[in-house]
Write a structure and sequence with these properties.
By secondary structure, the chain is mainly α. It has one domain: Amino acid/polyamine transporter I (Up-down Bundle), CATH 1.20.1740. It contains 20 helices and no strands. The longest helix has about 35 residues. The N and C termini lie close together (about 5 Å).
Length: about 475
């Protein structure tokens, strides 16, 4: 089969420190500001919400420990696509890559960019069309509704795509600046919450009125906790992203595991601190009522308003602008590498296998990703897209973790620079949780779950076409 000339390849642009920054910036987006209230509505007790964030972080850490072994074993760009191919063959790896393109990664880009646009609307008035135009429905979607925010989100995606085409290091430097700014801002909020005199330990002990009088049943607690953790997982979305750019990390066998573990550890600590600060200042009932009264309210805004008075919306909106800008950029940067790897295997649009001759970036893969992400911006709401990302993602995350077990048996003699600790407990526990999350999601959200499955299976005709083209191509 004739191979497309991939240019001069992708450069090793990132050392350990920048790799850690990319992990953090790919994860910390809007979830940490938005998800506390819906989680409180499910669990009704502040300490249970904080526990949900911790448990979700531990589950993600288990996943990180698994992919750290795989990333050190196969340190190539496109990571998970190649790991799944080694573990299960081309069919499973293709459907993962296709799912990243149709929903997992592009929907993450679209939804985070849309939240950026919503925060931007705090500072400037974004345009709207007439009620008649906004009510136009196409297949149950309202592409013209909130048109100003959708245009702003699309422009952000386009602008950051251009930056990343011009050079991976440029994209990395953007992530560095915005991530450090965000972390300092979060530390400032936590400090004010605990030392301003607004909050108290009693506040964090107070349960909401919806807390069951006799306590949760076992199944009721497990179901509520898993659904709350599903919301928290949106806050951790992007944890697997560094694996996509393994071929661009200096000394990847050493730096990839270190960056993954250090990055997620920092994120877990930050999330626990800021969520504790929320409920130290504001009782759960007050937070839930504030969000229910106005569906566009953000839990973090309500808390900062209570601490500092009017103006909290501007402070938090500014932080959301910073976090979502950095997160959108990092997700754009890492995600395109998987389509680049797919195309080099002949399983994606051919031009996606090319790298820019001067900038050494996967420019066509970035362009294809940009186009589809912008279309998704016009297709659905924030919560719908984020739930799709989590449901579809965990199907493949479970397969990736189980791939550690399969490859330990199939490649016994392979040199492993890093091994998953407490094997096989860690991968097995992660896989079992993935199964539980998917099961409860199908019961609680059958339409969302089936939509996610439909987008995954939409790759079948493409797989047949590209597989046939591979077989018929001359050697």
């Amino acid at each position: 089969m004739q191979q497309l000339n991939p240019g001069s390849g992708l450069r090793k642009s990132f050392g350990l420190k920048m790799a850690i920054i990319i992990v953090i910036s790919a994860i910390v987006g809007s979830g940490v500001f938005k998800k506390a209230a819906p989680m409180a509505a499910l669990l009704h007790a502040p300490w249970l919400v904080i526990l949900a964030w911790l448990l979700a972080g531990i589950i993600i850490l288990f996943g990180i420990l698994c992919i750290a072994e795989l990333s050190a074993l196969f340190p190539s760009s496109g990571g998970p696509f190649l790991w799944l191919e080694k573990a299960y063959g081309k069919v499973i790896s293709f459907f993962y890559g296709w799912s990243c393109f149709t929903v997992i990664q592009t929907a993450a880009i679209a939804s985070v960019a849309f939240v950026f646009a919503g925060a931007l609307g705090t500072f400037i008035t974004l345009p709207h069309l007439s009620p008649e135009a906004e009510s136009l429905s196409i297949l149950g979607l309202y592409p013209l509704k909130n048109i100003g925010a959708k245009i702003a989100a699309s422009l952000l995606i386009i602008a950051l795509t251009v930056v990343n085409i011009r050079g991976a290091r440029k994209g990395g430097n953007i992530s560095l600046f915005f991530t450090l700014t965000l972390l300092l801002s979060i530390i400032a909020i936590v400090f004010v919450a605990f030392f301003s005199g607004t909050g108290s330990v009693q506040t964090i002990r107070t349960v909401s009125e919806g807390f069951p009088a006799g306590g949760f049943t076992v199944f009721g607690f497990i179901s509520a906790m898993v659904l709350a953790m599903r919301a928290a997982f949106w806050g951790y979305e992007g944890w697997i992203g560094l694996g996509f750019i393994g071929g661009e990390i200096a000394e990847p066998r050493r730096n990839l595991p270190r960056a993954l573990i250090a990055g997620i550890s920092i994120v877990i600590v930050v999330y626990l601190l800021i969520n504790t600060a929320y409920f130290f200042v504001m009782p759960a009932d007050e937070m839930i009522a504030g969000v229910q009264q106005n569906e566009n309210s953000i839990a973090a805004v309500l808390v900062v308003d209570k601490m500092l008075g009017a103006g909290g919306a501007y402070i938090i909106s500014g932080m959301i602008l910073v976090s979502t800008f950095g997160c959108t950029n990092a997700t754009i940067l890492v995600s395109a590498r998987i389509y680049y790897a797919m195309a080099q295997k002949g399983m994606f649009f051919r031009k996606a296998a090319l790298s820019h001759p001067r900038n050494h970036t996967p420019h066509y893969a970035l362009i294809y990703q940009c186009i589809w992400a912008c279309l998704l911006v016009f297709s659905g709401s924030f919560d719908f897209l984020t739930d799709l990302v989590v449901i579809a993602g965990f199907i493949f995350f479970g397969l990736i973790a189980w791939g550690v077990v399969r490859l330990r048996k199939r490649m016994k003699m392979a040199e492993r620079p890093y091994k998953t600790p407490f094997y096989p407990v860690v991968p097995v526990a992660f896989v079992l949780f993935c199964i539980l999350l998917i099961f409860i999601s199908f019961i609680e959200s059958p339409f969302k779950s089936l939509t996610g499955m439909g987008l995954i299976l939409s790759g079948l005709p493409f797989y047949c076409y590209w597989h046939r083209r591979q077989r018929s191509a001359p050697e």
